[in-house]
């Protein structure tokens, strides 16, 4: 009788209530279950708690299991539900540093390696790298890797466990392997050593009682033999890891087996609505005048996440590496709560007012930008020489890869854009708890939102206004952006999440627009980009030219939006405070003549002002949006005196 047949018989006996079969089932399942939960969570204390919860749920629900032979997919489904429920409801906890995490692993694992001398040294060195790589892989990917590689489940059984389609299960496994290869590479291990690394992880996390741990991976990755693969793919960056790789292969990792696996291709994206995240790495030019030749400043690995879809706000995590991607340098995190900068030189984390803006003042681009949009930006900012051809997905037009030939210290660097490979957990603060934190934010940025006022004159008309601006995504939920702008004695502009309108002073609605219309051309920090990027992207969206330059004080940047139409020219001249990520003034120039300006003031203290800042009400006789948003052109119409006409 096979092992699976023995499990099936024991489950049937337990369902029928025979003797102590229920207790025996729980006892026998405990080790295998704990191994799975730990491989997914990498947290011993959490594993103990969740394993007990899963076993209790199993005992309560066993009678509901219709097919005894499906016991383990059913059990893993319960476990996966408990794990997901925990991560959805858990409060933010102090992160664990890599050294602390590995020491915790060792303390619970005990003396897992009895070998002496060099063999023990290299094994522990490799084990630490493999465990660190696995820790960086998202929880969902660890789950599907464990189910496929260590529990030997079919894709149909994985689909049951993960509560998804079989096709989705295949896609998850494909992405999980790629994600693990990437993290292994960051640890200095060749991506081709995926099989060996999985085998070692399986052995290290095997049940204490010695249950079999099977690694099932594609055989075509080992056709030349593991030792030959290690020697063929090793580079100078591996150092001691070359010896570690060969040593572990020669020692032999127990519980490994190979079986053929059909090739798996990730299905292409079909539309923007399919995108929720992306991952890519690019090289950045060293603009230091003292740099000699064509040098890269470093490899910038980026993760983007779109909580509301590809056209909404964006979270960013960015890790700077040296050009060869061997050593980590500084890092940035911009999520729904704050903007963080890790100063690796001083080992400090700064919480800042502003989001990242490139030192060369180039406009930030996204891989989801259309080819036409990107081409316009390249024409405005002078196309960068030395880049190879961009490759785009034929169905969506999204970037898939390009090659950068500019750098002699990172030659022929290829960037591959991976879509939907990142989860929201990647954008949680997780620097080691012992790193000092310096909060550089002013009161309004610490609060996450504030009120602002607008005052100015355009032509002969006085402009007054007020509004609310959230600085981060989370604050926008409770304090959404809104704006009221009085234009002379005739017009009132309102904008909120309920809609946007141009009304006569007495209340008659002249034009109705979609929400957010009159925030085009203004700062929208809750969207996840610096004001300098937002304004210029708004201009590029309308194919309007612009130029940028730094002010003499080095803290401000001037952005000039230049629009020409029917022999009329209009310039919008922005002064943007780069350190505080806000617009200070917009000056208007029409046909070479000064037309006026708007001055923005942001309130640090709002305790006594709530009654003066009420979100605008939508007019009673308003209709649904009847006009297409003019984008940043509304400011041009304001400068020309054509707004509402």
Content-based structural category = alpha+beta
Coarse morphology: elongated
The fraction of residues in strands falls at: 15-25%
Largest beta-sheet details:
11 strands, antiparallel
Using the CA coordinates, give the radius of gyration: 29 Å
Topology:
Blueprint: H1 3-16, H2 21-41, H3 44-61, H4 71-89, H5 98-109, H6 117-136, H7 139-150, H8 155-162, H9 166-186, H10 194-204, H11 226-233, H12 240-251, E1 277-285, E2 296-305, E3 315-321, E4 328-334, E5 339-343, E6 348-352, H13 371-381, E7 391-392, E8 399-404, E9 413-416, E10 418-419, E11 437-439, H14 443-447, E12 449-458, E13 461-470, H15 473-478, E14 482-487, E15 491-496, E16 499-504, E17 509-513, H16 531-541, E18 545-550, E19 556-565, E20 568-577, E21 582-590, E22 593-602, H17 633-640
Parallel strand pairs: 6-11
Antiparallel strand pairs: 1-2, 1-10, 2-3, 3-4, 4-5, 5-6, 7-8, 8-9, 12-13, 12-22, 13-14, 14-15, 15-16, 16-17, 18-19, 19-20, 20-21, 21-22
Helix pairs in contact: 1-2, 2-3, 2-4, 2-7, 3-4, 4-8, 6-9, 6-10, 6-12, 7-9, 8-9, 11-12
Can you characterise this structure?
The chain is an alpha+beta fold. The protein has helices at residues 3-16, 21-41, 44-61, 71-89, 98-109, 117-136, 139-150, 155-162, 166-186, 194-204, 226-233, 240-251, 371-381, 443-447, 473-478, 531-541, 633-640, and strands at 277-285, 296-305, 315-321, 328-334, 339-343, 348-352, 391-392, 399-404, 413-416, 418-419, 437-439, 449-458, 461-470, 482-487, 491-496, 499-504, 509-513, 545-550, 556-565, 568-577, 582-590, 593-602. The strands form 3 sheets. An 11-stranded antiparallel sheet has the order 17-16-15-14-13-12-22-21-20-19-18. Strand 7 and strand 8 (399-404) form a beta hairpin. Helix 1 (3-16) packs across helix 2 and helix 2 (21-41) packs antiparallel against helix 3. The longest helix is centred in the N-terminal third of the chain and has 21 residues, at 21-41. It is elongated, with a radius of gyration of 29 Å. The model is unreliable at 91-95, 111-122 and 210-266 (pLDDT under 50).
């Amino acid at each position: 009788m096979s092992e699976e047949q023995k499990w099936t018989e024991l489950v049937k006996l337990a369902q029928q209530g025979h003797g102590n079969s229920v207790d025996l089932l729980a006892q026998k399942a405990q080790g295998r279950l704990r191994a799975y939960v730990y491989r997914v969570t990498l947290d011993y204390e959490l594993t103990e708690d969740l394993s007990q919860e899963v076993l209790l749920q199993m005992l309560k629900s066993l009678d509901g299991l219709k097919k005894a032979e499906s016991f383990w997919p059913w059990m893993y489904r319960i476990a996966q539900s408990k794990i997901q429920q925990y991560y959805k409801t858990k409060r933010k906890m102090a992160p664990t540093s890599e050294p602390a995490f590995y020491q915790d692993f060792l303390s619970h694992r005990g003396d897992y390696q009895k070998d002496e001398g060099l063999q023990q040294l290299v094994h522990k060195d490799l084990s630490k790298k493999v465990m660190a790589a696995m820790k960086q892989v998202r929880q969902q990917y660890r789950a599907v890797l464990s189910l496929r590689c260590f529990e030997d489940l079919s894709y149909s059984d994985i689909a049951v466990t993960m509560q998804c389609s079989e096709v989705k299960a295949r896609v998850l496994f494909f992405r999980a392997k790629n994600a693990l290869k990437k993290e292994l590479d960051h640890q200095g291990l060749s991506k081709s050593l995926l099989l060996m690394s999985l085998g070692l992880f399986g052995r290290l996390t095997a049940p204490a009682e010695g249950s079999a741990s099977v690694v099932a991976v594609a055989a075509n990755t080992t056709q030349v033999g593991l030792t030959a693969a290690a020697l063929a793919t090793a580079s100078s960056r591996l150092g001691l890891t070359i010896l570690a790789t060969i040593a572990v292969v020669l020692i032999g990792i127990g519980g490994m087996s190979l079986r053929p696996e059909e090739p798996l291709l990730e299905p292409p994206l079909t539309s923007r609505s399919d995108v929720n995240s992306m991952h890519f790495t690019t090289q950045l030019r060293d603009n230091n005048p003292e740099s000699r030749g064509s040098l890269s400043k470093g490899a910038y690995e980026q993760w983007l996440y779109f909580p509301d879809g590809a056209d909404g706000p964006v979270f960013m995590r960015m890790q700077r590496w040296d050009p060869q991607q061997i050593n980590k340098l500084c890092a940035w995190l911009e999520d729904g709560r704050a903007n963080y900068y890790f100063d690796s030189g001083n080992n400090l984390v700064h919480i800042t007012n502003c989001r990242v803006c490139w030192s060369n003042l180039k406009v930030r681009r996204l891989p989801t930008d259309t080819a036409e949009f990107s081409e316009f930006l390249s024409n405005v900012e002078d196309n960068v020489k030395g880049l190879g051809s961009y490759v785009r997905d034929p169905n969506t037009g999204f970037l898939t890869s390009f090659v950068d030939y500019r750098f002699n210290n990172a030659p022929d660097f290829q960037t591959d854009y991976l879509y939907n490979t990142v989860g929201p957990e990647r954008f949680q603060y997780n620097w080691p708890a012992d790193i000092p934190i310096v909060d550089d934010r002013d009161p309004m940025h610490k609060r996450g939102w504030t009120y602002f006022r607008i005052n100015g004159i355009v032509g002969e008309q006085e402009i007054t206004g007020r509004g609310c601006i959230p600085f981060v995504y989370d604050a926008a939920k409770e304090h959404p952006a809104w704006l009221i702008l009085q234009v002379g004695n005739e017009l009132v502009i309102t904008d909120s999440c309920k809609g946007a309108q141009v009304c006569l002073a007495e209340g008659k609605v002249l034009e109705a627009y979609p929400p957010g219309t009159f925030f085009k051309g203004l700062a929208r920090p809750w969207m996840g980009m610096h004001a300098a990027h937002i304004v210029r992207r708004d201009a590029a969206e309308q194919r309007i030219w612009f130029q940028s330059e730094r002010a003499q004080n080095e803290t401000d940047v001037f952005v000039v939006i230049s629009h020409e139409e029917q022999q009329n020219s209009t310039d919008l001249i922005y002064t943007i405070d780069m350190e505080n990520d806000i617009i200070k003034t917009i000056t208007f120039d029409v046909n070479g003549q000064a037309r006026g300006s708007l001055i923005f003031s942001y309130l640090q203290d709002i305790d006594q002002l709530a009654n003066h800042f009420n979100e605008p009400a939508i007019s009673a006789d308003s209709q649904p949006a009847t006009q297409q948003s003019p984008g940043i052109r509304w400011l041009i119409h304001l400068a020309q005196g054509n707004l509402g006409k």
